[in-house]
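Every protein is a chain of amino acids, and every chain bends into a shape of its own. The protein below has been through that process, and both of its lines are reproduced in full.
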Amino acid sequence: MVEETEQLVEDATQEPKVTPEIDSKYRKIILAAQRSKQLQRGANPRVDMDPRKSKSTRIAMKELDDEKIDWEMLTDNKLTQ
């Protein structure tokens, strides 16, 4: 499942991580969809866009384009721990 392979890092207080490059348009869509759900549930946007005037999907795509979202690919080793 998607949640098993990718994880959005919501907590900005953690040490900075090296975010991998998004390697396909499909992964970008999945990440944007996950972030859009967070925004719909009340997360604050990390870009200067008004959530009342912009759809959450547009905000999420802008955040990904501006590299404001930290994410990582989970390997089998991380899943079993």
Q: What stands out?
A: The domain at 2-10+18-80 is CATH 3.90.940 (Eukaryotic RPB6 RNA polymerase subunit). The mean pLDDT is 82. The radius of gyration is 13 Å.
